[in-house]
UniProtKB/TrEMBL annotation:
It is an enzyme of class 2 (transferase). This is Aminotransferase. Residues 33-381 form the Aminotransferase class I/classII large domain. PROSITE patterns: AA_TRANSFER_CLASS_1. Pfam families: Aminotran_1_2. Belongs to the class-I pyridoxal-phosphate-dependent aminotransferase family. InterPro entries: Aminotransferase_I/II_large (IPR004839), LL-DAP_aminotransferase (IPR050881), NHTrfase_class1_PyrdxlP-BS (IPR004838), PyrdxlP-dep_Trfase (IPR015424), PyrdxlP-dep_Trfase_major (IPR015421), PyrdxlP-dep_Trfase_small (IPR015422). Keywords: Aminotransferase, Transferase. Its EC number is 2.6.1.-. PANTHER family: AMINO ACID AMINOTRANSFERASE, L-GLUTAMINE--4-(METHYLSULFANYL)-2-OXOBUTANOATE AMINOTRANSFERASE. The lineage of its organism: Bacteria, Pseudomonadati, Bacteroidota, Cytophagia, Cytophagales. GO terms for molecular function: transaminase activity. It comes from Chryseosolibacter indicus.
């Protein structure tokens, strides 16, 4: 047996990779599993994007290798988005690098900037891939807590008092996944000032900014951010294009060039048809986002009804594609509880512990299911709970 590399010894298979295989195994034609776990939009992209893909794919000349930096029209479309949505000016030639989904950018950035043994600041709770990639590049993981008493905000004063001399990179994610917390300009300015003072790179992972968020913001709009910040973004959530794998990294030319060194050795450019489709998707106007957010607002109401049934508590002003909720104190083992619901009702809910120790008492519900599916999930859990209570009552009586 050939031994695997040491670098993967501390990396687990992604939770959803394992768990969703288990969930799919419960699926039957008689009773389908309702997956409230993963944030994969269930609606189609705009028709103009789909038509652009079809037209481009029919052109025999469009199937060869492409420029590693993407076509100029795509970079300009991204720059226009930043100007219109975030009031941020980006040079499309030097400050934007298209990616095959922003997730690959997490690896590219770490490989480009983080040396073995250097510290990477990771939010707790937070996206598990930040930790996995830091492990893969041999970095030293260092979590910073997002505190419930600060409405899941960063305890910046605690960071200021800590030793940041070995920090090379800090991951931030606003609007935050899984808590739905947004950051104010003042909070982002404090983080930027901290990174400037201690000379580390701060990266904002920003795919949720246009979902149920009245004030979309880019960290690159903050004064002084250009010298120490990068931003990841994508069309996955905001334009219903998760499976299309269209994202980008934005920031200072020198930083983009460093990431390009890594990326250009990993792939041979994005399919031109996808780029043409992305150009069209980026033209979606205010009405697209108004309609999208109306749909998610209706789903959120249904999700909250389900959480109320489960006895959970939650903040009202969450942005993004999820509702983050605290389990009732009567539940001692959240993972066991979630599995009990899954196997008793075929409804899958994400346990919060996968996002870090700070999420251990929490669960997360995705809004990527129709109102009807959320209502069906509520009905199943309601019946399951009633049946369980009846059985417990009979046991006590006996």
């Amino acid at each position: 047996m050939i031994q695997t590399a040491n670098r993967i010894a501390s990396v687990e298979e992604y939770y959803f990779s394992r768990k969703l295989a288990e969930v799919r195994g419960l699926d039957t034609p008689e009773l389908r599993v309702i997956n409230l776990g993963i944030g994969s939009p269930d609606q189609a992209p705009s028709s103009n994007a789909i038509e652009a893909l079809i037209t481009s794919a029919k052109n025999p000349a469009n199937h060869g290798y492409q420029n590693y930096k993407g076509i100029p029209a795509l970079r300009k479309g991204i720059a226009d988005l930043y100007k219109n949505i975030y009031d941020t000016q980006l040079d499309p030639e030097s400050m934007i690098l298209p990616l095959m989904g922003s997730k690959e950018g997490i690896m590219h950035i770490c490989m480009a900037f983080v040396n073995e043994g250097e510290e990477v600041l990771i939010p707790n709770p937070g996206y598990p891939t930040y930790s996995s990639v830091a492990n893969l590049v041999g970095a030293k993981l260092r979590t910073y807590d997002l505190k419930e008493e600060l409405n899941w905000g960063v305890d910046i004063e605690a960071l200021k008092k800590s030793d940041l001399s070995k920090v090379k990179l800090m991951w931030v994610n606003f609007p935050h996944m899984p808590t739905g917390r947004t950051a104010s300009r003042a909070e982002l300015k404090e983080l930027v000032d901290l990174a400037r003072k201690h000379q580390f790179l701060i990266v904002n992972d920003n795919p949720y900014s246009m979902i149920l968020n009245d004030v979309p913001m880019s960290i690159l709009s903050i004064e002084g951010a250009e010298d120490i910040a990068l931003e990841l973004n994508s069309l996955s959530k905001s334009h219903n294009m998760a499976g299309w794998r269209i994202g980008w990294i934005a920031g200072k030319k020198e930083y983009i060039d460093a990431v390009l060194k890594v990326k250009s050795n990993m792939d041979s450019g994005m399919f031109l048809g996808l780029q043409h489709a992305a150009v069209e998707a980026l033209k979606n106007g205010k009405e697209w986002f108004t309609s999208l957010n109306k749909m998610y607002a209706n789903r959120k109401k249904a999700a909250k009804q389900l959480l109320d049934l489960l006895g959970c508590s939650y903040a009202e002003n969450q942005s993004g594609l999820f509702v983050w909720a605290k389990a009732p104190d009567t539940i001692k083992d959240i993972e066991k509880w979630i599995d009990e619901i899954l196997y008793g009702t075929k409804v899958f809910i994400t346990p919060g512990f996968i996002f870090g120790e700070a999420g251990r008492r929490y669960i997360r519900i995705s809004l990527c299911c129709t109102v009807e599916m959320l209502q069906e999930a509520l009905d199943r859990i309601q019946k399951f709970t009633a049946s369980k209570q009846l059985n417990q009552s009979k046991t006590v009586t006996a």
